[in-house]
Structure formats: structure tokens, C-alpha cells
């Protein structure tokens, strides 16, 4: 050992267990349980759909929901479970997909505020991408199929520091939404340093979409990217320096070793490992609290504080959250909780319809309401059972409202009820008769989606934020 080296024990090292550094949060184990149960139920339902589709006739149409369930529910949840185990949860120059797989490489960094980034990118000919919502997702599907221009099309979420991108910009190529330059920006946590010790405010990942295809790992419809991400990185830098000739750009050479790999969609990527740092501190920009500033920029300027994760202070010109949320609402809901709300409304409506239909048809038995096979209630118990089913539907409706407001305990109870309903059906192991398959397939499918979304990372993080208020219901009527 050299003279300047440290001998064992010089630094006073001692054994430290993970629980001492990151104690388990209240309810975390329960959330993990339902997270795994959702994956099991999804896989089970997928197998049931596949085996049922082997029957000749119109049952072959089940292959369509089989693909949808497999690509958008089962495989993403299974990937998420496994990647939580084997993919490191620290920074090593790669973003992550919603499923936890390695996403696009980080190939840019920036200094400045959210408003300065927006001003610089807008002046360089880049368009701020919209958030992913039902409306924007449908618009990009239509635009891709009919080759219609959609310059503000959303980009899929990628995650860094446990958060999806704060800002995303794109440049459409010749009005074709299938081909576009795009870049995502993430705000770095306070006091976080790059490998090597440099402090930057933002990290970014820029790639070029070449076409629309299927993901190799989930079979979802997605954009395919060009393998040479360095070309896209250099294009972004060139577009900014062209409009701002005096813009300082530092380059951290060999930020990472050059490598060849695949991203979360299965596309090949390669890079030389250099990291340009865009110094945007001197860019003139209207303050983020200006009335004309896009909501995405306002939101990015506010920083963040994750209960069991990192935090970042707001920009000096950031707007007060009370001025930017609806009717005094204290929090912005993730899209996943809105998906869960929609699915639960569909489930409650379908169950109510099945109950009324069973009564009118003169067959008020659980088989007519739940779709399970061969379980008949004795005649003397039919009325109490019907009242019990109706009460159960009412309780589910109440839990749904409280969960949407943001209460943690009703969310857990709702996940328990959904898990019980799903496993009762799945343990039955049969599909209903063809005449009843539509309503019961709907109930099972939407209950599964609700369970998966309620146990998702974004909803778990959101529900731990603190005590909610009923003012938060105002946000239901508005989407940004």
C-alpha cells in the first residue's frame, strides 16, 4: 500500500444496514404486496384469454384483448417487478422506462432555470411537447395512421431520479409525426453531483425517432430511434448555438465509456460517452410565473419534493403552486389515478347493470352478476344476497371517491376488494357463456386495470404526500 493510501479502519468504517439508511415507510410492504398481486392477476388473466381464444368462431376475437392485456398490462408489470430487483436504483447515465428497463442514455446537461431552457429551445426551433393524456395519446395515434402533422405530440415518459421528465421538446420532420427529433429534460436533485464532482441543474436525453413499430420487450406500439444518438446530441447543441452564437458549451469528455446497447424498446444505440453542458444562465426569458408561460414550464420551475426520494428547490421565478392549481387544490394528480377512477366507474356501472339485468331476467344469482360458474344461492337467501351485492357496490363507490381524493387507507381497502374479486373469478378458471362474456370480460378487465394503476409507483408516491383536502376534487374537471 502506498504512503498516501488509507489503511483498513482509518476512516472508521463500520457495518451499515439498508434499514438504517432508508427505513421502510409505513404501508410500503402492503403496497409491495398489491404490486406483486397485480402482476400475478394480470398474468393469470392473460393465460385465461389465450386459452379461451382457441375456440373456433367469434371467440377468436379474444386474441385482440389478449394482445392488449399482454402488451400494456402483463408484460409491463412483470418487467417492473423484475427490474426492481436487478436494475440498480442509482445514476449511471441511463434513464429508465415506466417498466423499469434501461431507456435512452443521458447525453446532455444544462444550467439555468426552466424558463431559460424553454426560451432557448423555442428560439432554436423546438416545440414543447404536450403531456401524455387520453386525448393526446388518441391524437398521436390518428396523426401517425393518417400521416397528419402533430408538432406538439407527447413523448413517452422516461424516468431519472425516480421521476419522469420535467420538459420535453421536439422537431417534427416534414410534417411526419413518425419521424422527429426530440429531447427530454430532468431537473437534478439539490446538492447532487455528476460522477467526477461537477454540479449541473439539468440532465437531458436526445434521440431521433425514425419510424413507428412494436417494442421488442413489451410488444407495445412505440417509436423506433436511430442508433447513433451522438448525431442527435450534436444536432441539439448546433441548433442552440446557431440561434445563440455566444452560448457557452462545456464538454465533459469520456463522461461514460463508449458503448453499444439497446434501449427499453429494443432499439440499438451507441455513443462515444461525451457530455456537452449547455450554460443557459444568461438567456433572457420571461419569468415562469408569467401569464403566458406554458403550464409544463410552470410546473418544472416549481422543483419537487418526493416523500421517500430526492428534492429540488424551485427556481427564483417559480409561481406559487396555489396560483397554478385549480380552485385551491393542493396537489396535481398523476394520470394513473385518473385511469383508475375511469376503470372503477366502468366496473361499478357494469356490476350495477349485471345486477339489474339478473333481477329483471328472474335469475338473481351470483353467476349472473359475477360470471362465476355453478354457484347457485338457495331461494330463501336470494334477497339478502342481492342486498349484500348492492351494499358491496355502494361501498366500492365510496372507497373510489375517497381514493380519488387522496386518502391512503381507502386505497388499500379498494385494492384488497379488487384483488378478492379478481382472484374469485380467476380461481373459477372458466369464461362465461358466449351470451354473457362481454359484460363479465369487461368487469374483470377494468378491475384488473384499476388494481394495476392503484398499485403503480406514481399513485403510491402521490398518496403518501400528506393529508388531502376535498378541494382536490376540483382538479377532476381540469387537465393540463
Low-confidence parts, pLDDT < 50 over ≥5 residues? Answer: 16-21, 322-330
- What Rg, in angstroms, do the CA atoms define? 25 Å
Q: How many structural domains in the coordinates?
A: 2
Overall helicity: 40-55%
How many β-strand runs? Answer: 16
> How many helical elements?
14
Q: What is the subunit arrangement here?
A: single chain
Please give the alpha-carbon distance between the first and last residues: 60 Å
**Strand/helix succession:** HHHEEEHEHEEEEEEHEEEEHEEHHHHHHH
Please characterize this protein's 3D structure:
This protein has 2 domains: 28-82 and 333-477, no CATH class; 93-324, no CATH class. 42% of the residues lie in helices and 16% in strands. It contains 14 helices and 16 strands. Strands 3, 4, 7, 8, 9, 10, 11 and 14 form an 8-stranded mixed β-sheet that branches. Strands 1-2 form a two-stranded antiparallel sheet. Strand 5 and strand 6 (163-164) form a beta hairpin. The longest helix is centred in the C-terminal third of the chain and has 27 residues, at 335-361. The protein is elongated.
How is the topology of this model organized?
Blueprint: H1 18-21, H2 28-52, H3 63-86, E1 94-96, E2 102-105, E3 108-111, H4 114-123, E4 127-128, H5 134-146, E5 159-160, E6 163-164, E7 167-173, E8 176-187, E9 202-214, E10 221-225, H6 229-243, E11 249-252, E12 259-262, E13 268-271, E14 275-279, H7 295-301, E15 304-305, E16 311-312, H8 321-324, H9 335-361, H10 366-370, H11 382-405, H12 408-428, H13 437-454, H14 457-463
Parallel strand pairs: 3-14
Antiparallel strand pairs: 1-2, 3-9, 4-7, 5-6, 7-8, 8-9, 9-10, 11-14, 12-13, 15-16
Amino acid at each position: 500500500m502506498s504512503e498516501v493510501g488509507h489503511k483498513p479502519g482509518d476512516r472508521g468504517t463500520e457495518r451499515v444496514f439498508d434499514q438504517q439508511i432508508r427505513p421502510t415507510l409505513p404501508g410500503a410492504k402492503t403496497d409491495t404486496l398489491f404490486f406483486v398481486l397485480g402482476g400475478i392477476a394480470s398474468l393469470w388473466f392473460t393465460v385465461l384469454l389465450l386459452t379461451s381464444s382457441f375456440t373456433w368462431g367469434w371467440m377468436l376475437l379474444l386474441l385482440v384483448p389478449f394482445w392488449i392485456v399482454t402488451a400494456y398490462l402483463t408484460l409491463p408489470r412483470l418487467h417492473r417487478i423484475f427490474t426492481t430487483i436487478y436494475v440498480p436504483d442509482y445514476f449511471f447515465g441511463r434513464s429508465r422506462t415506466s417498466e423499469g428497463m434501461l431507456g435512452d442514455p443521458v447525453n446532455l446537461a444544462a444550467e439555468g432555470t426552466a424558463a431559460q431552457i424553454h426560451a432557448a429551445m423555442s428560439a432554436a426551433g423546438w416545440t414543447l411537447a404536450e403531456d401524455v393524456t387520453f386525448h393526446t395519446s388518441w391524437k398521436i395515434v390518428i396523426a401517425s395512421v393518417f400521416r397528419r402533422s402533430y408538432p406538439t405530440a407527447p413523448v413517452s415518459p422516461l424516468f431519472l431520479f425516480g421521476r419522469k421528465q420535467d420538459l420535453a421538446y421536439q422537431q417534427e420532420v416534414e410534417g411526419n409525426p413518425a419521424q422527429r427529433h426530440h429531447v427530454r429534460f430532468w431537473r437534478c436533485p439539490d446538492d447532487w453531483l455528476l460522477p467526477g464532482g461537477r454540479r449541473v441543474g439539468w440532465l437531458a436525453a436526445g434521440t431521433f425517432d425514425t419510424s413507428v413499430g412494436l417494442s421488442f420487450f413489451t410488444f407495445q406500439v412505440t417509436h423506433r430511434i436511430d442508433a447513433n444518438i451522438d448525431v442527435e446530441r450534436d444536432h441539439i447543441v448546433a441548433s442552440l448555438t446557431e440561434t445563440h452564437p455566444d452560448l457557452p458549451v462545456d464538454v465533459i469528455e469520456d463522461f461514460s465509456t463508449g458503448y453499444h446497447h439497446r434501449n427499453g424498446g429494443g432499439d440499438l444505440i451507441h455513443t462515444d460517452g461525451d457530455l456537452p453542458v449547455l450554460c443557459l444562465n444568461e438567456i433572457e426569458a420571461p419569468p415562469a410565473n408569467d401569464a403566458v408561460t406554458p403550464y409544463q414550464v410552470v410546473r418544472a420551475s416549481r422543483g419537487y419534493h418526493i416523500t421517500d426520494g430526492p428534492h429540488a428547490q424551485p427556481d427564483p421565478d417559480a409561481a406559487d403552486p396555489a396560483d397554478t392549481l385549480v380552485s385551491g387544490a393542493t396537489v396535481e394528480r398523476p394520470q394513473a389515478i385518473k385511469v383508475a377512477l375511469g376503470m372503477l366507474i366502468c366496473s361499478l356501472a357494469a356490476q350495477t347493470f349485471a345486477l339489474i339485468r339478473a333481477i329483471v331476467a328472474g335469475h338473481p344469482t351470483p353467476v349472473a352478476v359475477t360470471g362465476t360458474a355453478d354457484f347457485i344461492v338457495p331461494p330463501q337467501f336470494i334477497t339478502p344476497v342481492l342486498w349484500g351485492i348492492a351494499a358491496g357496490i355502494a361501498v366500492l363507490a365510496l372507497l373510489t371517491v375517497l381514493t380519488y381524493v387522496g386518502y391512503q387507507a381507502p386505497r388499500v381497502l379498494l385494492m384488497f376488494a379488487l384483488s378478492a374479486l379478481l382472484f374469485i373469478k380467476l380461481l373459477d378458471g372458466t369464461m362465461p357463456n358466449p351470451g354473457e362474456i362481454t359484460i363479465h370480460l369487461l368487469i374483470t378487465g377494468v378491475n384488473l386495470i384499476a388494481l394495476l394503476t392503484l398499485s403503480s409507483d406514481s399513485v403510491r408516491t402521490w398518496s403518501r404526500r400528506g393529508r388531502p383536502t376535498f378541494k382536490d376534487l376540483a382538479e377532476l374537471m381540469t387537465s393540463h
